[in-house]
Amino acid sequence: MRAPRVTLLAGLGTLAAGVAALAVARAGSIAVEPVATIPHATARQLPTVPYDGTFTFVRVRFNAGRRDFSGGFGRGRNPGWAHDYPYADENFIKILDEVTLLGPNIEGTNVIDADDPELHSYPIAYVSEPGGWAPTQAELDNIASYLQKGGFLILDDFRSNREWANVEAIFNVVLPGHSFRILELEEPIFNSFFQIETLDLPPPTFQQYTPIFLGLHENNDPERRLMVIANFNNDIGDYWEYSDMGYYPIDLSNEAYKFGVNYVIYAMNR
């Protein structure tokens, strides 16, 4: 059931014009050659939440190349998979609880390894900086099974032709025969809770890149379930992280929250 549009925070306004026409570099079929597993870097974690059937925000921790462990942005020096963690996760789950009837667990969020079968217990998972993901075979196999069994992935905070080529190569292996397609404003995911009025959400950083939303559909059929959404050349998690600090305009933070809420409501109803 679609809920009426509501205001997330005070001061919602119209996005400024000026985002260039949609564009994305499409890489060809690329063989993924997983690197040796690197010990997971640590990041300050919120309390883990035991599984009880309640919706819980899940972030995927993945194997990465060494450049991913040289330090990140945000309030801490976290690896790419932990960029904006834990503040983005914590802020988003509070908004989700405030504006929907989903009843998410607000006591904590979970970080689950990409190769951990426990991921299958959770219908939605968030992946930060997948452009730096160097998947092991175990990760590829587990993610493939997760998506085929009904899981939904949100890919966020990545940009450039090089990072796109890496992401596309990964999913060419995870879902052979599936191709990312550009998502338009009329897609069900952009109307699942809030009526998104524009896809021109300016990136909070790296503004030389043009944002675009792409998706992978079940059986590569646009009429079937969307399994993966990619916020390419954008970083909605950054908006979530800093929404309580005044770094970005309130209306843009609100829009970023709207996208996240829509993703969750869409995935929970498919």
Task: Describe the structure in your own words.
With about 270 residues, the protein is an alpha/beta fold. It has one domain (about 60-270): Rossmann fold (3-Layer(aba) Sandwich), CATH 3.40.50.12140. It is built from five helices and seven strands. The strands form two sheets. It has a five-stranded mixed β-sheet with strand order 3-4-7-6-5, sandwiched between helices. It has a two-stranded parallel ribbon with strand order 1-2. It starts with about 55 loop residues before the first strand and ends with a helix. Mean pLDDT is about 85; it is low at about 1-40 and about 65-75.
Topology:
Blueprint: E1 58-61, H1 87-99, E2 110-113, E3 124-128, H2 137-148, E4 152-158, H3 160-174, E5 181-182, E6 212-217, E7 226-232, H4 236-242, H5 250-268
Parallel strand pairs: 1-2, 3-4, 4-7
Antiparallel strand pairs: 5-6, 6-7
Helix pairs in contact: 1-4, 4-5
Write a brief structural summary.
The chain has 270 residues and is an alpha/beta fold. It is 24% helix and 13% strand.
